[in-house]
Design a protein that fits this description.
Elements lengths: L18 H4 L7 H14 L2 H6 L17 E13 L2 E12 L2 E14 L2 E14 L21
Antiparallel strand pairs: 1-2, 2-3, 3-4
């Protein structure tokens, strides 16, 4: 089987990065859990997203938008203080009408040997890349030669 890059853009192969967490291994900290959740969104793994959500704030159901493709993740900061942590991130998604940026500071808690996403303060904005900017889809091409 050919190794593939992890969607969280850690630079590691998926099978050495987020896949073990998707398969049940505990995250080492809030940033690792955030990266694994992004990868789960990118891969359409709603079950993992729900399992990694704290039971006290987890929605009863979760449906992912089939028309939205998560293509980029940037971690601005990640902090851990004992059993609590925060991660400030920017995630880029591609929808039929263009690109959006979700920016959030997420709160995490460590309970029973596992980190859980609790909640966050999200904001969503439209991303309007310039023609000569790198394409937000992660292709490595200029926007005008790719999705522009």
């Amino acid at each position: 089987m050919t190794a593939r890059a992890c969607p969280c853009q850690s630079g590691k192969d998926y099978n050495q990065c987020c896949q073990p967490l998707h398969d049940g291994q505990p995250a080492s900290g809030p940033e690792a859990l955030m990266r694994s959740r992004f990868s789960a969104f990118a891969l359409g793994n709603a079950d993992y997203i729900q399992r990694s959500w704290h039971p006290g704030t987890r929605p009863a159901t979760l449906s992912l938008d089939d028309d939205e493709r998560w293509v980029g993740l940037t971690i601005a900061s990640a902090d851990q203080d004992g059993e609590h942590g925060t991660v400030h991130f920017r995630a880029v998604s591609q929808a039929p009408n263009g690109f959006n940026v979700l920016e959030e500071t997420s709160n995490f808690v460590h309970e029973n040997g596992h980190w859980f996403y609790v909640d966050g303060s999200p904001s969503v904005s439209t991303l309007k890349p310039g023609r000569n900017d790198p394409c937000p889809c992660g292709s490595g091409k200029k926007f005008k030669k790719c999705c522009g």
